[in-house]
Amino acid sequence: MATRMKQKALARENNRDKRPHAVAKYIRIAPSKVHVVLDLIRGKGYREAVAILKTTRKAACDPVLKVVNSAAANAEVNLGMNKETLYVAECYADQGPTLKRVQPVSRGRAYRILKRTSHITVVLDERA
Question: What are phi and psi of 60, to 5 degrees?
Fold first, then answer.
């Protein structure tokens, strides 16, 4: 049985995506708001994406900029890639756990407030 587990582990390692990436989890902003910013940088070069994120006035720009810079640093340090040749190959925001809070309203009732969180992933790649 242990032999088969080793083979599976080797197969997973060989099929793993080798592109540089970074993930930020449990970011306290709704994924729908992050999608707007990610659509702006998808497919852009690294320098252009950073410039867009620095000049856009959206709350989601700061955490996305951190993730893009982290992915670029991973590419440079771990894989020896040059930042000038990188571009944003994939970027997406998945929904994380939702914090449930209560808003008191009239007649002793309570409405639920859903504070959503995001898991932001950015995958970079080199231009040919």
Answer: -80, -10
